[in-house]
User: Fold these one by one.
Assistant:
Number 1:
Amino acid sequence: MSKANPVRTTVYYSTPTESHPVLQSGKTIKSVSYQISTNCSRLQNKVSGKFKRGAQFLTELAPLCKIYCSDGEEYTVSSCVRGRLMEVNENILHEPSILQEKPSTEGYIAVVLPKFEESKSITEGLLTQQQYEEVLVKRIHAATATSRASRGITTTTAPTPPQPARSVC
Amino acid sequence: MFPLTEENKHVAQLLLSTGTCPRCIFRFCGVDFHAPYKLPYKELLNELQKFLEIEKDELVLEVPNPPPKKIRLQELEDGIDGIDNLSQNGEGRVSVIEDGSIASKSSNLNVCNVCLGILQEFCEKEFIKKVCQKVEASGFEFTNLVFSVSFPPQLSVREHAAWLLVKQEMGKQSLSLGRNDIVQLKEAYKWITHPLFSEELGVPIDGKSLFEVSVVFAHPETVEDCHFLRAICPDCFKPAKNKQSVFTRMAVMKALTKIKEEDFRKQFPCPPNSPKAVCTVLEIECAHGAVFVAGRYNKYSRNLPQTPWIIDGERKLESSVEELISDHLLAVFKAESFNFSSSGREDVDVRTLGNGRPFAIELVNPHRVHFTSQEIKELQQKINNSSNKIQVRDLQLVTREAIGHMKEGEEEKTKSYSALIWTNKVIQKKDIEFLNDIKDLKIDQKTPLRVLHRRPLAVRTRIIHSMETRYVDEHHFHLYLKTQAGTYIKEFVHGDFGRTKPNIGSLMNVTADILELDVEVNHFIVEVPICTLNSAKVVLWWGGH
């Protein structure tokens, strides 16, 4: 899971949440890649000007990056938030461990800027910490065996400032 | 001394007989000194008639009896257009009898066919008095004024027609008449009216005055007089935004320079025909140019934006620095509105200490403009007494140039800050000492997330010149910094998710956050104490270090 943190309800940054397998102890991240398909690399995202022209548009399920673990597991992190991609964190390319060590700060994956009109509804669609934990509990009960296929679940939860926000998508 | 000579007789006769008023006749005869124009209308008519040896009962341009004139002025007061009180008299047409004398078919050719009344009643004392009454009623304080007057564009057309007529007549005498030999209508109008204004209001006319009285005339009856010009010179009359009518004075004058005489004469009568009514007064307005007040402010609240914080019509935080200062000024100067500007600004939650941040306020259309230095001091005291969130000092009147100087060098300045820092790890005094030794540290700051929605995404390199620490406890210390202008201090402390590097957290290998921030603004100022409005000195210089 990853979480989206709203900053003054207008800019969100995505990081994986604690329940994400990548953040389970014992896992080592070998590398991270922003090449999500043959034609699309999030690294190519370039925005210019005050209105951030040129940004790649993201839907909730749009992949942000792929995480390759040393045990062979591969995870795709999705955006969870509709909006325009501002930047991806290149630091996790050089130092993948910060994804695990500092997921709430320097280990962020991306910064997404939603449309002004949508920012309020997006924030309201997020979960509080408590709601998020309830979702986790439900999932654990309904757990099926995890497959080797990369099917990352991203969660973003609702904000209680200054707590980070999460939502399930 | 009557200003016309024998040489002018033919032209004067021609113009008078076709319905032109004495003052316009003077203009076309090149009378370029003020005195004759200032004489009363009736007297001018009499003198003219004597000069031309016309018998009184033959006079064409007779002044109407007092009642019609009074009615017209009454309607000026009521705001109605000048009445059509001459319709029953019709337009007097004059026939020139063989023996050279002029007979009139009917009298009361009242309204001048060239100036449409501008140089008849609208330059005389009664009208000027009416204007001055309005000026006095408007409640402005002024020691001089500039008078601006606007005439309907069709006057240029009539002037042109009259010129062609007179030029032709003078040609018969082998005399030439250039366009510039004629005295301009506006010039003659001002010769007459300026002394009248001065007398009535007790102040001189000064072209540089900030107080403007403007009168706009219109003549709806002849509005279409200019329209024929569009067919002949279409590119003079291109419609542009913000223009109500395409037939502006400039456009009409331009077209008149281009049009050929034959073409003009085909479309417009020479001499111009006599109108039924005089001009109407479209507006009489007064306005005072903006005055500027400058000073410095300290901000002691951590909950006050510099400008009003309103989103979707909802005010998010009460008041603002701008309003706390400007509301008082607006009231005292009796101004319409204000524009607030300052040399830099600070966040809502940041205090402004030191000598204070320079600011300047433009007061738009102030009704009151003269203040003694004592009064300004009292105004400053009033502002300071009304709120403990801000304090103002060095309040003074300045010129417009001062604002430019204030903004100058904003980029070059160094800023001093004081921050209260929290660390997640326990710290000892020795853990922060190394910060004191760091000089001119270069940092790279990506646009902070908190402003990213309104700023372009970029990386800014900034310099932290020096730092000084003061230990508080295991999780807190004070940090004093001197930095380059434009440095985001908060992000330098907490690192903004690693997007500002290096940062206090990375330097100390802790997670750090900023709890409080103060900025010390100490621009040095070279100043010449309080200038009064009418002096042209540049008063305030804002320096920096």
Number 2:
Amino acid sequence: MATLDIDSRAAQLGIDWSQVHLDSIHLPPGENFGIESDDEGVYHDDQLEFDTGFGNIIVVDNLPTVAKVKFEKLETVLKKIYNQFGVIKENGLCMPVDPNTGLTFGYCFIEFNTPQEAQNAKEKTHGYKLDKSHIFSVNMFDDFDRLMNVKEEWEAPQTKPYVPGENLQKWLTDEKARDQLVIRSGPDTEVLWNDPRQKNTEPVHKRSYWTESYVQWSPLGTYLVTLHKQGAAVWGGADTFTRLMRYQHNMVKLVDFSPGEKYLVTYHSQEPSNPRDASKVEIKVFDVRTGRMMRDFKGSADEFSIGGPGGVAGASWPVFRWAGGKDDKYFAKLSKNTISVYETETFGLIDKKSIKVDNVVDMCWSPTDSIISLFVPEQGGGNQPAKVALVQIPSKVELRQKNLFSVSDCKMYWQSSGEYLAVKVDRYTKTKKSTYSGFELFRIKERDIPIEVLELDNKNDKIIAFAWEPKGHRFAVIHGDQPRPDVSFYTMKTTQHGGRVTKLGTLKAKQANALFWSPTGKYIILAGLKNFNGQLEFFNVDELETMATTEHFMATDIEWDPTGRYVATAVTSVHEMENGFTVWSFNGKLLYRVLKDHFFQLTWRPRPASFLSPEREENIAKNLKRYSRKYEAEDQDVSLQLSEQDREKRRALKEEWERWVMQWKSLYEEEKLERQNLRDGEISDEEEDDDEAKEVKEVEFEDVIDVTEEVVEE
Amino acid sequence: MRPILMKGHERPLTFLRYNRDGDMLFSCAKDHTPTLWYADNGERHGTYRGHNGAVWCCDVSRDSSRLITGSADQTAKLWDVKTGQQLFSFKFSSPARSVDFSVGDKLAVITTDPFMEHTSAIHVKRIADDPQDQVGDSVLVLENPEGRKRINRAVWGPLNQTIVSGGEDAVLRIWDAETGKLLKETDKEVGHKQTITSLCKSADDSHFITGSLDKTAKACLWDMRTLTLIKTYTSGVPVNAVSLSPLLDHVVIGGGQDASAVTTTDHRAGKFEAKFYDKILQEEIGGVKGHFGPINALAFNPDGRSFSSGGEDGYVRLHHFDSDYFNIKI
């Protein structure tokens, strides 16, 4: 491998490796040959502290100076005092005596068994009053050197020159307002611009073996986190991706950011040596910017998971769920019968205790507020009803709760702006043999949080997928029987009936099993992934009309870009063939395809929330024509330029080809005689040329062969 | 473009060959009988009976009088095209994989597979004018040219001076047809990464195209004299067959996923499409679907107005181009 690298590098630089005499090379002096290692850790590691061996000795000052007579008495007193803090070593107390006067100097050394004891004793007895005039002054022996060297005059500490950090938001200022995406294929991880105008991607940064498992953007897109054996690292910056910080966590497996990207949670689980034991889990919470570990949690996987076998697989991720909003104030963990809510100010539990909820199995934060929704299933064989409750944090007040009967399962879906909560409830039929589904819809922002019950037109329909319109008031449901279920759209708000949920429409018999709303709402992709082979239907919910129906064969993943302008569909390496991704416009027009073998991951770089108020956004949408004119002109320019480039390229290709053809033709001519000889003199080449010249002409002509007259008798 | 479906073979197709006039189409398949078809309406004209194994390859003489076929029964046979009679049988000790008549039809190059203790070999045979005088001796034998690796195709270079071969080791080689000396071979870096499955010469022997199973599955266009790589066409699936249009600057590439994996997925996953590319710009123009197994053989009619494809599914599909085809602009 290494020699291969060297060979390729040499070839790149145009060096003939075989001509190089290794002995003639003089390397620059120094251990690193004058080349700074790019692993700054090598240089910035703390200098190792060498243990002087005196760490467990303290010096007690301001003792009374005593003569020989009283020496022993003082010694007993001191021993008495210091034995409280630890074990003084044998002959560990030493009080020197001035040989001239026979008096003590007024200080002594005490050696403890351990440095901790010494430290403790120092802290506890510094300032100890033996009597009025003798107040102890205690120091660690090790500190003496340092304290003696303190300069007499105070020196102002040097202020380090301010080093401006990189602009981590630079990608947002792209002139063409493009979005970035990261892909992983084979050993390579690449960050690319999506350039729909050029119908291609433009590389930003590429690295082989950038990560050892996967990569993830932070929720606002500022950082890209990579996972390594030693821990996680975040990357970002203005132009290229530089490493901004590292977080040490051996064998980290999973990471999660807080929504305001202030904190990074890393997870590591270790398979137990005894398969019956639960695996060991270690979770650390880091401050993203300083890299400081704020808190770590250790325990067996059981403590971090609920329901299911848990044990071997480890905890379900994310273990810690962050409260909504961007202030990253609270995070919560669900465990058996409790919900533990931590606050980030102290990284301790709120009010120092968890919330006790018997048998709780699921919890969700509101995406915007510090409200937890939780679900408790039925207990006691149906005697105690199931319950869905909303709990306000940090007050832990239950805002609303609803009891539900004969429930088999519940799923909670928050709308992205925290206005609504939909709870899909699967209930048993009377016979308890089958289940049917309905929805409980909570209107969080209205007074008293009214709850509405929604049942599908056909109660027995199975619900295959559910999705809220982001920032909107609508939701879509796929229901019915495979392989051709129906898709229905509902709205929580209509002009006619203000506060009632109403159905907008149903699309019958669609090949879909997943819903992907555009991040700006209005558009949705009804996708048939997996066994539907990647059917895609781009649907406009405002107009309730299909914009396009297409297919990305075998597509496994679909992801909208953060602006809702483009969609990427990908076939990842779960399939062998046709790995790669396709980018579509929001209305289902195919823009371009990129094929990559061993394609693992595609993630768009998220954008932070817009600074525009909803009113202004609406205003822009209204006057879109005025704003878009500028961009249309740009589009026009680009397309002209593109074709110009293209033409240039094509002309070059054509010319090159012509040169080949000319060469071949002349050679062909030269060899004509020889070829004729090989063919026994058959003049064949001309014949071929003649073929082309030959034209089949159809000539019609009439010829009078014979004329006879016959008398027709009447 | 409505294809003519030619059902005559019972096993997967292996090779297709038009005669020079473009009125006859010869097909070889894993069943033992090469078949002759009318190239315009796809009617079957006759068969050549005598082989006792899969027939891998064939070539027809310039005057359409002789046919040579190479078969897994360890023979290559000469046939009278008109009567269907076997004129001569060259016996080998391993299957004959590829056959090619030289310019003037006086020589034929035959490759044989590695088999038992025999390595692969390239044989040059002299073809007698009168079949009575035909002898089985080789003019030249290149033993072990690629070791134990199979040679999938060997053809004559310009003026019969060279022989170009390609096979499982993904390297193309040019041999001196007189001495058997290796003149040139392709660089691993530049060329194919996996087995070369097919090779098709241009009409004037100036360049040729090869198809390969390598991951990027490309067909490469090579200069026949210098072995320079000129173009690469990436297809996304393994390539089994390639052909050059004699009329327009088009190449056609066929293939699809491995035959052993076909039944495991939807037929659309296989991409059993004959894909057309612009020869110069290397851009895909379009595709012709229809086969429900990988495409194993492709051939253009010498007039460039029709082409036929043979599939693992046992069908030959004969396509006469619509007039639109001749006006494709990209």
